[in-house]
Write a structure and sequence with these properties.
This protein is α/β, with parallel strands linked by helices and 191 residues long. Helix content is 35%, strand content 18%. It has 5 helices and 7 strands; from the N terminus they run βαβαββαβαβαβ. The protein has helices at 22-37, 50-60, 91-101, 112-127, 138-149, and strands at residues 9-14, 40-44, 65-70, 84-88, 104-107, 133-136, 164-167. It has a 7-stranded parallel β-sheet, sandwiched between helices.
Length: 191
């Protein structure tokens, strides 16, 4: 670990099986690499697409890559970068494993499954525990912009959005990966 931490931290990565663009594939790879460089264990669905690109970046930098999925479901082989598998009995257990264990959550483009994961992460961070949720890449940012315009995502005195961040470039992720308290309460502006 390069961050100086002795305990590993968990980064959850939500991204779809069909990347929206080559730029987003590269961003996912860079995200995985940066997570590993900061000592994070990468938790993801374990399959292909953006998940695999993030896993490849993490693995190339010595990171642990965990597939968190449902026991008994066969959606294909895990991507070759998976170093451990966590097979859970229900979708609820799977979502709790992601959300309850996360030190940071990163969401990119995807299908309906990624949409479910992204919105669950935003709800969780706004209501249960303010874990940082990072919306990465143009496709996911268009979606959160739509949700804000339609009033589905909004700040209120009881529901601040300080946990929610958007990044378009990998350089914007580094400050969000610092250990708790390292930023002195400062961070990126919320979405």
């Amino acid at each position: 670990m390069t961050s100086g931490d002795t305990a590993s931290r968990n980064a959850v990565f939500f991204g779809g099986c069909i990347p929206a663009s080559p730029d987003e594939e590269h961003l996912a790879n860079d995200i995985g690499a940066m997570l590993a460089e900061h000592g994070f264990v990468l938790l993801h669905g374990g399959y292909n697409g953006l998940m695999e690109h993030a896993a490849k970046g993490a693995a190339a930098h010595g990171g642990t890559v965990a597939a968190v999925t449902l026991d008994g479901m066969r959606w294909g082989e895990f991507n070759p970068h998976v170093t451990e598998a966590r097979l859970l009995a229900t979708m609820g257990e799977r979502m709790h494993a992601f959300l309850d264990e996360a030190d940071v959550i990163i969401a990119m483009a995807g299908g309906i499954g990624t949409l479910h994961e992204m919105t669950a992460a935003i709800w969780y961070a706004g209501n249960i525990r303010a874990v940082p949720v990072v919306i990465a890449g143009a496709t996911a940012q268009r979606f959160t912009s739509f949700l804000r315009r339609q009033g589905w995502i909004y700040a209120s005195p009881t529901r601040p959005l300080g946990f929610l961040h958007e990044i378009s470039d990998i350089a914007d992720l580094g400050p969000l990966l610092q250990p708790p308290g390292a930023l002195g309460g400062q961070g990126s502006e919320p979405c």
